[in-house]
Each structure stands twice: as structure tokens, then as C-alpha cells.
Write a structure and sequence with these properties.
The protein is an alpha/beta fold. Helices cover 42% and strands 18% of the residues. It has helices at 4-12, 14-35, 45-50, 52-66, 75-88, 95-110, 116-146, 232-243, 278-291, 312-318, 335-339, 351-357, 371-383; strands at 154-164, 169-176, 190-195, 204-209, 219-224, 249-253, 269-274, 297-303, 324-330, 345-346, 364-368, 391-394. The record marks 29 as: Involved in heme-bound ligand stabilization and O-O bond activation.
Length: 404
Amino acid sequence: MLNQKTIEIIKSTVPVLEKHGETITTRFYQLMFGNHPELLNIFNHANQKQGKQQKALAGTVYAAAMYIDNLEAILPVVKQIAHKHRSLGIKPEHYPIVGKHLLLAIKDVLGEAATDEIIDAWGQAYAVIADAFISVEAEMYDEAANRQGGWDGFRNFVVDRKVVESDVITSFYLMPKDNRGIADFIPGQYISIKLEIAGEKYTHIRQYSLSDAPGKDYYRVSVKREAGTANPDGMVSNYLHDGVNVGDVLKVSAPAGDFVLDTEKNTPVVLLSGGVGLTPMMSMLKTIVEIQSERSVTFVHAAANGNVHALRGEVEDLSKLENVTSYFFYDSPTEEDRRNNRFDVEGYVTREWLKEKLSITDADFYFCGPVPFMKAVNRSLLELGVREERIHFEFFGPKGNLEE
């Protein structure tokens, strides 16, 4: 436990962290990777390059400082990050390395303003915060390894099928190489895939939402090809599309994630997605159809046009069921899309459309997609009076803020 003086010192640094947080976390990663380049085998290089990880860490440090006397308040954030850590393979021995370099970065950026008293207080605070993460993650590691079909770390899976779903999205059906059972998962969760790419010094780990219902003898992920191979995300997705074939072996972590469908409820569900954000929505849709056949579900998907619209046929087939309704939005439809009536609405998902077409008062809303899409959906739902506890969303990569 932290004493009152330490708590007061930490809280006094909140304004400084608000102003200099990203500068500190950027310097932190520079120092840590400079001294421990082996950690580049774990961290997402694309998120580093784009500044997403630095921004997310700055937000976490800021929140920890603000609630240092009530860490229970940020427990949901801790659990969410812990899911990512467990999926990536972050272990207790990594935390002292992180703590050492975070304190060095604070000292480096703030200079004389970072007094010995402040550095000492942050050292004590970091130890408490790290213990919270380590404790939560230990439970998650134990659960992942000891559940039926579960495992620790990364397990070899064979690409059983590879299906081109659109011009930019391909699905990979993964089956365990050892032919033993696989862990069940909750719709909305993801797996991590660890890749060793020829010519690359470090391994790359990427997390992909599972795009089929649980209970199968395979996992399915549907991966979007990112433009260009110069950026790390493009390099990884292009490698999967072009370099991974049926019969190849991939290293896969057990399912993780806290953006999940609540199957204990029977309220109407609205699933909204943009682009490849439809992957967790597909798992949720197929699960509702399989185990909650009386539950009303509306599937809303936004894409540029039919050329990039993946898994369309699966949704159309399910939409023949009495409890399923679907709508497709295309903002740049092709002439072929128009001729074949492939979409329902031209343009973007708007607040007015949501109000007119959906059951706003009693539904639970789940959404995922590009950040601008999610910001627009979140803002519209709040303006329409949907309570926050009925709004659920997932970010690809580090958690962001939809209210920025």
C-alpha cells in the first residue's frame, strides 16, 4: 500500500503527465528498445511507428496517476490490457524492465522538475500498478492453459483452408497440428499469430478477431491486406495473403479479449461494422443464430463497395432467418453493385437512419471498424439516448478514445 504522502506526490504530477505524457512514453520506448531490443519480438512495430502505442501508454499512465488512491476504478482498463498481454506473452519478468525505463524517461523528459522525491514516489506507485497487472495476468495465464483444449504460450496450427472473401480480405481456417481439441472462446475474442518473416530480424505478432462462431474444430480469422509493404502492418498482412498457404504452420495463442457478446441477455442486438471490423460481428451473429435463435439481431455493415465487401454471402444466408435483419451501406458503389442491387443504402451510417430503422430504446449495440466510423456511431447512439452500458465497441490495436 502507498502512504498518503506518496499518493499526494503522484497526484501532483497529473497535470504534468497530461501535458508531457506522450513525450515521456515516446522516450520510454526509445530507451527500452535501445537497451532491450529483444522486446521488439513482442511489441507491435506498426503501433510504435504510428504513435498509437505511445499515446495509449500515456493515457494509461495518466489514468493510473489520477486514480492512484483508487486503482479499483481502472480495473476494467487493467483487465483489457491484461488480455492483450496474455495473448502476446508478456510475463512478470518484463515488468521491472518497463518500470526502470519509464522512470528513466520521466527523468529524461522532465529534467530537474523530476526531483528524487517524485522519482521515488513513481517507483513505489509503479510497483503497486505492476503487481495489479501481474496478478490479473497470472489468473488469465492459468485459465488459458488449464481450460479444456487450452494451452500456454503459442501452439502450432495448420492452415486447413484459405478462402478469398473479397479483393482485400482473405479467411484462414486454422486447425491444431497436434490434432487435439482447441479451447472454446466467447464471440468477439481474438487470437494472436506469431510470424517469422524471411529477412526480418524480429518476429511479428498480430491479433486477429475470430470470425466464426465458437464450438468448431477450427479457428477462423479473416485478414485485410493493408496497402504497401513498407509499413509493418502492410508487411505482415501481405505476408499472410501472399506467403502463407494451405498446409503451412502458424504459431497461435489461446483466444483472449473482453469485447464479447453477452449471451446471458435476450435483448435485441444491433451489430454495426465498417470494413474488416465485421470480423468479430460475424462471430457474434453466427453465435446468436446457433444458440439464441429467438433473439432479434440486426447486422449493419458499411463498405466502400461490393469488391471489398467480405463474407457477404454468409450474412445474406443468415438474413433469411426470421430473427435476423441485415443492411449494407456502400459509400462508393460500382455500376455492377447498382445493377445487382448489392446494397441497401448509398452513403454512410447516419444518426437519422439509426433512429428510423433500429430499436434504439431496448437494444444492445456492438460495433467495430475504422476509428472515424466508430466515433460517428458512438456519437450518434449517445445523442439518441442510448445508455453507455448498452454500447460496446472494439479497437484494433491499442485502446483509443472515441470522444476525442
